[in-house]
Amino acid sequence: MEYVSTRDKSRKVSAAYAIANGIAPDGGLYCPTEFPRLSHEDWKALCDMDYKGRSAFVLGKFLTDFTAEELKSFADAAYADEKFGGKNTAPMVKLADGKYMLELWHGPTCAFKDMALQMLPHLLTASLKKTGETRTACILVATSGDTGKAALDGFADVDGTKIMVYYPVDGVSPMQKLQMTTQAGKNVEVVAIHGNFDDAQSAVKRIFIDEATRANLDKNGLMLSSANSINWGRLAPQIAYYISAYCDLIATGEIKMGDPINVCVPTGNFGNILAAYIAKQMGMPVNKFICASNRNNVLTDFFKKSGSYDKNRDFYTTTSPSMDILISSNLERLLFFVSGQNDKVVAELMGQLSTEGRYALAKDLFEKITADFDAGCCDDAQTAETIKRLFDEEHYLADTHTAVAVRVYEMYRKQTCDKTPTVIASTASPFKFCRAVIEALGGTLEQDDVTQLDVLTQLTGVAAPAPLSALAGKTPRFDRVVDKSEILGTVELLKDL
User: Fold this and answer.
1) Does residue 61 lie in a domain region?
2) d(CA 207, CA 228)
């Protein structure tokens, strides 16, 4: 299996090279040159495996320069029972009206990013060795909340790595901020920026293609890599949990082998739903992908308005901050796939996005996309109403991002009368967004953010996750705040870690 850039497919690299380097030198994203297909026998075998086995099996189809033994050992370590609260790494909860909640937040940081970022350190360190790389990998991460903590937790004190996380100072929940700023580890740094996630993400991409910065790091025995979903090693592990969910539906008798499902995902950077799309290309029967957005509805407009993507719009800070994004990086990979790997078209579109802040797809390309995708959005008030209704009527406690997905799915079902069983990605513990969830349920807020955990438990009878309760009394280590224009200069901090 070889990999190419979305903007120049002339140069092919190995999976290990793509993972080690994170992003292509031209600013494009690495993609496989083909999709492996799962045979009927493969599906039967997958249904008999636990999550660790399924993860290793799926990764083995893409990462052909890794051995089966390596991937098995990585999966066993990444998804160890003690990290995910038991053997059921990604459990599903059946609700009414064809909803199946795929809970992806039982890992150490209580968000779906753990599903990939517990695996990535193993893949990255192995990739460095396979490519003969002797420099220390400096991992740059832009986060809208959850990726930052999950990456910090995964890479803390991992030999041969350093990690720097950038987050918008006013664009994450208090719990997300506390998780990041109290992170332990000798090789970690956390920087807040005056700006939003898009500012951080754009700056990180500029750093990757800045030749002077790369040369300066190289002189000091350092190289750049990424833990955002622009890195194929971050995205690939996410494919497994959709395939695992399909196997679980078969195992519980909810569907039969070959029956189609829908997949609904609360989406910001588009990586999570793209992983489901790739699972379909491998043979998982999917009728429709439902892309759910909050008030920052650039993706909804893209899917509903003839393929016009326009980031030139107001940016809103919402109660679902991990989706407060206007530049959805992984949409670039979808364009590459549906255009038949037309790198020239993708490069032109991304150039227009960079210079003009917008682009429009040709009609035939847009029609290919909408054959698979639908979309919808909701605001904070609708999100809060959904949280309360889910708890009151179905005794299910959802966080703000999951509630966005549920609301959008319900609107889709009402509009289309499509009753296909639907897997809804539940992306974070409700306790990561205590204030918004408590307010939605009509509870009374406390001043201290960690105390909010107890308030939500008393209100609902649901216990707070241990990793969040353990934050009580911790003192933040990191308080650096910079302007978005100063991000490039902060790379110097990596030398001192």
Assistant:
1) no
2) 14
Choice among 113, 149, 288, 432 that is catalytic: 113
The reported pLDDT for the residue numbered 203 is 86
Element (H, E) at 422: strand 422-426
Q: Which residues contact 127 (CB under 8 A, 6 or more apart)?
A: 15, 16, 17, 19, 20, 133, 233
DSSP character string of 284-341: --EEEEEEEE-S--HHHHHHHTTTEEE--S-----SSGGG--S--TTHHHHHHHHTTS
Name which of 266, 276, 271 is nearest 320 in CA terms.
266
Domain count, the chain: 1
Catalytic (active site) residue 83: no
The pLDDT mean for the chain works out to 95
| CA–CA dist 95, 93 (Å, integer) | 6
Q: What is the domain range of residue 343?
A: 90-109+241-432
Residue 148 lies in a domain: no
- How far is 51 from 47, CA to CA, in rounded Å? 10
Weakest mean pLDDT among 145-159, 277-291, 370-384:
145-159
CA–CA separation, 404 and 319 (whole Å) = 10
Q: Place 312 in a pLDDT band, splitting at 50, 70 and 90.
A: very high
CB contact at 8 A, 426 and 373: no
Half-sphere exposure of 429 (CA within 13 A, CB side): 25
Residues in Cβ contact with 385 at an 8 Å cutoff, skipping those fewer than 6 apart: 440
Listed in sequence order, the DSSP H helices in 38-101 are 40-47, 51-62, 68-78, 81-84
Does the pLDDT of residue 220 top 80, yes or no? Answer: yes
What phi, psi does 214 have (nearest 5°)?
-65, -40
Composition of the chain by helix, strand, coil, percent to 5: 50, 15, 35
- What pLDDT shows up at residue 162? 96
Q: How far apart are CA 241 and CA 245, in angstroms?
A: 6
Assess contact for 150 and 113: CB atoms under 8 A.
yes
Which residue, among 432, 429, 386, 389, has the nearest Cα to 406 in the 3D structure?
A: 386
At 45 the pLDDT is 97
Best CA proximity match to 429, nearest among 163, 85, 117: 85
In a domain, 404, yes or no: yes
In whole angstroms, give the CA distance from residue 352 to residue 346: 10
**Is the backbone of residue 231 left (phi > 0), alpha (psi -120 to 50) or beta?**
beta
> Residues 321, 173: contact at Cβ < 8 Å?
yes
In a domain, 389, yes or no: yes
CATH code, domain carrying 295: 3.40.50.1100
Alpha helix ranges (H) inside 63-135:
68-78, 81-84, 114-117, 120-130
Q: How many beta carbons lie within 10 A of that of residue 9, not counting itself?
A: 19
Annotate 326-377 with DSSP letters as a single string.
Answer: S--TTHHHHHHHHTTS-HHHHHHHHHHHHHHSEEE--HHHHHHHHTTEEEEE
Give the pair of three-digit tokens for residue 181.
């700023």
